[in-house]
From TrEMBL:
Signal peptide location: none
InterPro entries recorded: Diverse_substr_monoxygenases (IPR051260), Luciferase-like_dom (IPR011251), Luciferase-like_sf (IPR036661), NTA_MOA (IPR016215)
Key words, A-Z: Flavoprotein, FMN, Monooxygenase, Oxidoreductase
PANTHER family in alphabetical order: ALKANESULFONATE MONOOXYGENASE-RELATED, C2H2 FINGER DOMAIN TRANSCRIPTION FACTOR (EUROFUNG)-RELATED
Domain of life assignment: Bacteria
E.C. number(s) listed in UniProt: 1.-.-.-
The name this protein goes by in its record: LLM class flavin-dependent oxidoreductase
Cell division found in the keyword field: no
KW DNA-binding (keyword) present: no
Length: 452
């Protein structure tokens, strides 16, 4: 079996996924505004040969647009949160190999500016940046960016299509290879015949270009995506190089992977052009008893209110709450349809209801000795998973325990890398710096020459 890939799934905030855990005396996420917490974590992850640190991000509050948000604020539940892209530039200069992935929603920045920011980070990190493309699920998030309401699910994916198209034109088409000369003798910094305007004209955006930064080591950053609805999967099949799934079982993961790969092939790509990362959390013990005892301790800290507030499913659009016994089948959401389906598939012995959501989310964990955990990871790998995005209970403990105790066992089994491959993030994962010729971004290489 080939080595699995491991990303640390984190957020520049106090309470990201596992709510309530920040109250533990060893939880350093309470001080997330301190860059030292992140630099130390990034260095530890690099020591453990993690592939990447992967930042989630949101640009608004969970809950109904005009609903209460006291749970969010009281629990530090993704508020306060800070900009991951700015933080990544500090991590870039304190690490050498670690991939630097961050989430950015298509509504939060104009694509011209976003493309420039990515290129700058890719230069600073020497080609280690990845973008998790999200379309947003938050009503409040939309209202922070000039919109009256969060656009419909389908409309959001159409928006994303145009957004990525603009960025691809800038990253891939605006500067030809060899445009940057830095020729002191001839006095030519860049060759004007090789730097092009893109003249994008679309439904939402008008962008002339040219792209202002010079081509960065990867040009297009490594692209992740996490949608699991029909629209989300179709988008992933076209654009994603890494898909983030949180399937409830390996069998459901296998179905999802097979279907997304089928769509990728239909879109002109190859099955192996897309890697799949399952989201997962661990509780590690030197014995099974110790692992169970640690699990018990985690249970004591978890906040049910936090999980419900996070999932948006606790409240209706008018801000009133769904009764806890409401079947999930009756929950209407314009947020993440894919996640709701996954939650419903997690329960097979009764009709899942709103009250089950906290247990379902916090229950996504593998508890045991390093050997038992390794056994489980093999099961996921056999289902087609290429790697894992690891959720944390506590920063840095969840990662240091995994690095110090589980990774050595995985290495013995050939399931974790023993050294970093050289080069950019994409080079490490796919063996090339740039997107391959089957990716939609590649169509813009060398196409704008006639128009400049
Ligand atoms: C594991 C996972 C992590 C996600 N992380 C973020 C995030 O950090 N920020 C965000 O705005 N959306 C995030 N999302 C939302 C998705 O990117 C996507 O926009 C959402 O699931 C709606 O798409 P879908 O209905 O196609 O699943 C995440 C979704 C999943 C499943």
């Amino acid at each position: 079996m080939s080595p699995l890939r491991f990303n640390a799934f984190v957020m520049n905030t106090n309470s990201h996924i596992h709510h309530g855990q920040w109250r533990h005396p060893d939880a350093q996420q309470v001080d997330f505004e301190s860059v030292d917490v992140w630099v130390n974590l990034a260095k530890k992850l690099e020591e453990g040969l993690f592939d990447a640190i992967f930042f989630a991000d949101i640009v608004g509050l969970y809950g109904a647009g005009d609903g209460p948000y006291d749970v969010n604020v009281r629990e530090g539940l993704q508020i306060p949160n800070h900009d991951p892209a700015v933080l990544l530039s500090a991590l870039a200069v304190n690490t050498e190999h670690l991939g630097l992935a961050f989430t950015s929603n298509v509504l939060q920045q104009h694509p011209f500016h976003f493309a420039r920011q990515i290129s700058t980070l890719d230069h600073i990190s020497k080609g280690r940046v990845a973008w998790n493309i999200v379309t947003g699920t938050l009503e409040n998030g939309a209202r922070n960016f000039d919109l009256e309401h969060l656009p419909d699910h389908e409309e959001r994916y159409k928006w994303a299509q145009e957004y990525v198209d603009v960025t691809y034109k800038l990253w891939e088409g605006s500067w030809d290879e060899g445009a940057l000369l830095k020729d002191r003798e001839r006095g030519i910094y860049s060759d004007p015949s090789k730097v092009h305007k893109i003249y994008h004209r679309g439904e939402r955006y008008r962008v002339d270009g040219p792209h202002l930064p010079s081509p960065s080591p990867q040009r297009t950053p490594l692209l992740f995506q996490a949608g699991a609805s029909d629209d989300g999967r179709a988008f992933a099949a076209q654009h994603a190089e890494g898909v983030f799934i949180i399937a409830p079982t390996p069998e459901i993961a296998a179905d999802n992977i097979r279907e997304t790969r089928r769509l990728a092939v239909a879109a002109g790509r190859r099955a192996e052009d897309v890697k799949f990362y399952q989201g997962i959390a661990f509780v590690v013990g030197s014995t099974e008893e110790e692992a169970k005892r640690k699990e018990q301790e985690l249970e004591e800290y978890l906040s049910i209110d936090g999980y419900l507030a996070h999932m948006n499913y606790a409240a209706k659009e008018d801000g009133t709450s769904y009764p806890p016994d409401t079947p999930l089948a009756d929950v209407e959401t314009n947020a993440s349809k894919g996640l709701l389906t996954w939650l419903r598939q997690s329960i097979t012995d009764h009709e899942p209801v709103v009250a089950d959501v906290a247990a379902l989310l916090s229950g996504r964990r593998i508890v045991g000795t390093p050997e038992q955990i390794a056994d489980q990871l093999e099961v996921w790998q056999r289902a087609g998973v290429d790697g894992f995005n690891i959720f944390n209970w506590r920063i840095p403990d969840s990662y240091t325990e995994f690095i110090d105790h589980v990774l050595p066992v995985l290495r013995e089994r050939g399931l974790a890398q023993t050294e970093y491959a050289p080069g950019t993030f994409r080079q490490k994962v796919f063996g090339s710096d740039y997107v391959n010729e089957r990716h939609p971004a590649a169509q813009y290489r060398g196409t704008f020459g006639g128009k400049s």
